[in-house]
Design a protein that fits this description.
The complex is a heterodimer. By secondary structure, chain A is α/β, with parallel strands linked by helices. Chain A has helices at 14-26, 202-219, 223-228; strands spanning 4-8, 31-38, 52-58, 68-75, 88-93, 109-112, 133-136, 149-155, 177-183, 195-198, 231-236, 246-247. Chain A has a domain at 96-236: Pectate Lyase C-like, CATH 2.160.20. Chain A is built from three helices and twelve strands. By secondary structure, chain B is α/β, with parallel strands linked by helices. Chain B has one domain: TIM Barrel (Alpha-Beta Barrel), CATH 3.20.20.70. Chain B is built from 14 helices and 17 strands. Chain B has helices at residues 28-40, 128-141, 176-181, 208-214, 234-247, 264-273, 293-298, 303-316, 334-343, 352-357, 380-383, 388-413, 418-421, 435-441; strands at 43-46, 61-63, 84-86, 110-112, 116-118, 145-146, 163-167, 184-188, 199-201, 222-224, 254-259, 278-282, 291-292, 324-328, 347-350, 428-430, 444-445. Chain B has an eight-stranded parallel β-sheet. In chain B, strands 2-16-17 form a three-stranded mixed β-sheet, with helices on one face. Chain B is globular and about 85 Å long.
């Protein structure tokens, strides 16, 4: 059983707080509880170990930026830039997240129970065994999955009312890799020009079952109930959307 | 045109009648560009730096020397110092009482033996042999080379202490170890050859090795968006600067590179206030492996004017010490370096000059990926033409030659440390410049 180290973050500047986290992790601590977090930035950056950090309060921008390994659980909302350029690890947010969730992430998993801001999943990529996966329980703002080059982005729309559709426009603009699964209504005009929509195949169902299963486990939902609803799959129409721009 | 009289010579030499008509406005380059675009409907691409006839201010600045009243120094027999430290300098320093031990905690500093570094050229744009040549020469000469935004090949990790790693909008190959191994982390906002423009490395250039350093699948396009999507303001820039400081535990300076544009001075002030330890300005003549020609040739401002105005602005605001200033874009020789230092630069990046040392003929075909000299290509049949043993030696030779010349220049001025020339514009005079140009450069007319 992991013994949690408790750190009270009240009134501590992020630099000092992150130094404490670094020290705790280098001492071999495997579980840290952060209490009274009030917007301190860069939690989880420069901790390349599989430590678990449980946060009570509101972490600041760039939560888990450049993160490589830790698992972060937030009991509250995350701000902008959560999972920025993440390489590995897991972020579980029991609330909302701000803009550019998972920007340029190359690996790891992010689960958000509620809504996210603009440009979620922008320029996520994948490489070899690394494949970032983002599951959002609520809905998202414009430019979801913009410039996406890899990974899996799932938008569940669980908080949409009967007959209410997702509001995001320009979904997947410039997308040239990866895949987006959406539950809930979305109109064609909301999609970027580089995106196609299709029915799910067997493999898609397997991916969804696994990730929605994890989502449901984290936040206490019934996965089967979620999966009963119709999903659509959005994929890049061209792997090289800007291949014919140039005169040689 | 020239006709030799048949009476005097058996030969008649005349212009090919099929050649374009001589026309100052409709030059062959302009005509051929139009033809190419009407055939393809695409954006014209090019390589290298701006080759147009904008004024080169270095050629209108001259350096001073000592005569009679203050003796010059002979660098052959007297010590001359080119040592340069890059990084944030404190506003004031305090010593432990009664000793020479520094009480003030210094921000991380990087020591350069020669104030000339190799500019960012990514693996993918140039070959691994080129990068290895740069890395080895930088290590040998006590300076730095720059990975560009293509990640760092594992073979070059051992040169980490002399490596600047770049974090650009695509975040290619940026991971924990990459940041960890570097001496300096540079955030790339812009590039002199293509201010405000992103980059597309075409899938054809992404082979197995390039794929592994950029950490993207083989054969996929590497798209670097025009902006960094987490930076829409100076405050956002500060956030990334400090994210990288956190990610490296405040052990290395963070540089921010921009293209020199109209409001560079104001932006530079913001960059310093955002926590950048080094600010890099890349001028109108800055080079590229591939850029839209129309951008390369028409966007940005000359580096000399940008440097002078940025240095002035930071001094006026009393924050010049908070960041080192590095310039790039068309620096050709040690004379340009000395003038840049006198205008206010701490160090200089060279790109094209370094590639010429490796055999580049500035043919401007970099964007084709078929560089006949094996420099700007990833084709293994071509890249083997650059031998890193020879390449490193030639680059070291170049830096050694420039160092000797810089020492000669300093000695001639009667000063024995580069630090005494830095920002000392009294050692410069202008020739053939207008009053406005002299005012912006902050130098007096020759003869005054």
């Amino acid at each position: 059983m992991k013994e949690a180290v408790i750190i009270d973050a009240k009134g501590i500047f992020y630099r000092e707080l992150n130094a404490k986290l670094r020290k705790a992790v280098s001492n071999g601590t495997q579980k840290i509880e952060l209490r009274n977090l009030y917007g301190q930035r860069y939690i989880g950056t420069d901790l390349a170990k599989p430590v678990e950090i449980e946060i009570f309060g509101t972490p600041g921008n760039d939560l888990g930026a450049f993160m490589d390994g830790p698992r972060i659980i937030v009991h509250g909302n995350a701000q902008d830039g959560c999972g920025n350029t993440m390489n590995n690890g897991e972020i579980i947010i029991h609330g909302h997240a701000g803009d550019i969730l998972g920007l340029s992430a190359r690996g790891g998993k992010i689960f958000v129970r509620e809504d996210v801001g603009y440009r979620a999943g922008i320029h996520m990529k994948e490489y070899q065994d690394k494949r970032p996966m983002v599951v959002i329980g609520g809905t998202a703002q414009d430019f979801l999955g913009e410039y996406m080059a890899g990974g899996v982005l799932i938008l569940l729309g669980l908080n949409l009312k009967e007959g209410e559709s997702h509001k995001a426009n320009f979904i997947g603009t410039g997308m040239h890799g990866g895949i987006i699964y959406m539950r809930g209504d979305v109109q064609e005009f909301q999609l970027g020009r580089e995106v196609g929509a299709a029915e799910l195949d067997e493999n898609d169902h397997l991916v969804l079952k696994k990730l929605v299963g994890e989502f449901a486990y984290h936040f206490g939902y019934d996965a089967e109930e979620i999966l009963k609803h119709k999903f659509i799959k959005l994929f890049p129409l061209y792997l090289r959307p800007y291949g014919r721009l140039y005169a040689y | 045109m020239c006709w030799l009289s048949p009476l005097r010579s058996p030969l008649t030499i005349r212009r090919n009648p099929l050649d374009y008509r001589e026309n100052y406005n409709w030059r062959p380059e302009v005509i051929e560009d139009i033809i190419k675009q009407s055939e393809t409907g695409g954006v014209l691409l090019t390589g290298m730096g701006n080759d147009k006839s904008y004024r080169i201010y270095w050629d209108h600045l001259v350096l001073n020397a000592s005569q009679v009243t203050n003796p010059s120094i002979d660098p052959l027999r007297e010590p001359m110092e080119l040592t340069t430290y890059l990084g944030q300098k404190p506003d004031r320093v305090e010593f432990e009482s009664g000793s020479l031990c520094l009480k003030t905690e210094l921000a991380p500093q990087v020591k350069l033996e020669v104030p000339v570094m190799f500019s960012a050229m990514s693996y993918g744009a140039v070959s691994l042999n080129v990068q290895e040549s740069l890395a080895r020469a930088a290590t040998e000469m006590g300076t730095l080379w720059n990975t560009g935004e293509g990640g760092l090949h594992p073979k070059l990790y051992k040169y980490g202490d002399n490596t600047i790693v770049q974090v650009a909008s695509g975040r290619f190959g940026v991971h924990h170890e990459y940041l960890d191994v570097a001496r300096v982390v540079e955030i790339k906002i812009g590039q002199g050859a293509k201010p405000g423009i992103g980059g597309h490395l075409p899938g054809e250039k992404v082979g197995a090795e390039v794929s592994s350093t950029r950490m993207i699948p083989k054969g996929t396009d590497a798209l670097s968006p025009a902006p960094q999507h987490d930076i829409y303001s100076i405050e956002d820039l500060a956030q990334l600067v400090y994210a990288l400081k956190e990610a490296t535990n405040y052990t290395k300076p963070v540089a921010v590179k921009i293209a020199a544009v109209h409001n560079s001075a104001a932006i530079a002030s913001g960059m310093v206030r955002a926590g950048a330890d080094i600010i890099v300005l890349d001028g109108l003549r800055g080079s590229t492996g591939a850029a839209p020609k129309i951008i390369r040739d028409n966007v940005g401002i000359p580096i000399e004017l940008a440097l002078a105005s940025v240095d002035d602005r930071l001094r006026q605001e009393g924050i010049r010490n908070q960041a080192s200033v590095v310039i790039a874009g068309g620096i050709r020789n040690s004379g340009d370096v000395a003038k840049a230092i006198a205008l206010g630069a701490d160090a200089i990046y060279i790109g094209t000059a370094a590639l010429i040392a490796l055999g580049c003929t500035t043919c401007q075909q970099c964007h084709t990926g078929k560089c006949a000299w094996g420099i700007c290509t990833t084709d293994p049949w071509l890249t083997k033409r650059v031998n890193p043993d020879i390449g490193a030696r030639r680059l070291s030779n170049l830096l050694r030659g420039w160092s000797l010349e810089l020492k000669d220049i300093l000695g001639g001025m009667g000063i024995n440390a580069l630090e005494s020339l830095r920002g000392n514009r009294l050692h410069l005079r202008g020739v053939g410049l207008t009053d406005t140009e002299l005012e912006i450069l902050g130098v007096r007319m020759a003869g005054s």
